[in-house]
Design brief:
By secondary structure, this protein is of the alpha+beta class. About 25% of the residues lie in helices and about 25% in strands. The strands form three sheets. A six-stranded mixed sheet has the order 3-4-5-6-8-7, covered by helices on one side.
């Protein structure tokens, strides 16, 4: 990531900064941290946004049912200001439980239930989060691993006061070939009552071309496409 930031500074004259939040058990400086990664993080242009306070590790608790892998990639909230008297936004990047089968459980819906419980415990902590940052402008975004018919986790977040910008389950993963389809894993949830997000729409940046273009994209960049949305910067209302 240092190389990416350096290239942005060099080629685009943009001052980017970033923070990484390691996966549980991946201590900074260890081989797992450096080689395997799987970290969650945020990056921002320092000339456009200012970090407010310190990152807040959300106290989602633990789960005897789902064990050590429950919120293995901890949810951390970060607040940014876009200028005095203007919009502040609290961003929560997440990566929920993958769809990889758990050999310890025969239930085919096990990972779906796991994600639903992760979403439920996150929503339960929203009052404490809003009190911590004194802000309602919250965005939850990342790889939720929700399948098209995997509704409970998304419904929990919507019931908690958010709008799912990928409610129509647009595919966001690089997939090609007969029998394969792009999965709607990557999503952005914005606070449903806040004016800054009233016109927010999901944009998915996909490669242009045939299967070879998708293969090259995956080889060079990622197995997920980039998803974005626009937040309107105006006078802060909270």
């Amino acid at each position: 990531f240092d190389a990416v930031v350096d290239e942005l500074k060099k080629s685009h004259k943009q001052n980017w900064q970033y923070l990484l939040f390691p996966k549980i058990g991946y201590s900074e400086g260890t081989e797992d941290f450096i080689v395997r990664g799987q970290h969650i993080g945020v990056a921002w242009r320092a000339d456009k946004a200012t970090l407010v306070g310190s990152p807040y590790a959300i106290e989602v608790g633990s789960s005897e049912e789902f064990g050590l892998k429950f919120w293995e990639r901890r949810a951390t909230a970060v607040k940014f200001s876009f200028g005095e008297g203007k919009t502040d936004v609290v961003v929560i990047p997440v990566h929920l439980k993958s769809n990889r089968p758990d050999p310890e459980h025969d239930d085919p819906n096990w990972t779906s239930k796991h994600r639903a419980q992760e979403a439920k415990t996150l929503v339960a902590q929203l009052p404490a989060l809003k009190k911590k940052f004194e802000d309602e402008d919250i965005v939850i975004l990342g790889d939720f691993n929700f399948l098209a018919d995997d509704n409970e986790g998304a419904d929990t977040l919507v019931a908690g006061g958010f709008r799912d910008l990928n409610a129509d389950d647009q595919g966001t993963t690089a997939a090609w070939g007969e029998g394969y389809s792009s999965a709607p894993f990557d999503r952005i949830f914005v606070a449903s009552t806040q004016s800054e997000f009233k016109n927010a729409e999901l944009k998915i940046s996909k490669p242009i071309g045939d299967d070879d273009a998708i293969r090259n994209y995956k080889r060079q960049y990622s197995d997920h496409y980039m998803v974005t949305c626009v937040v309107e910067i105006s006078a802060d209302d909270d």
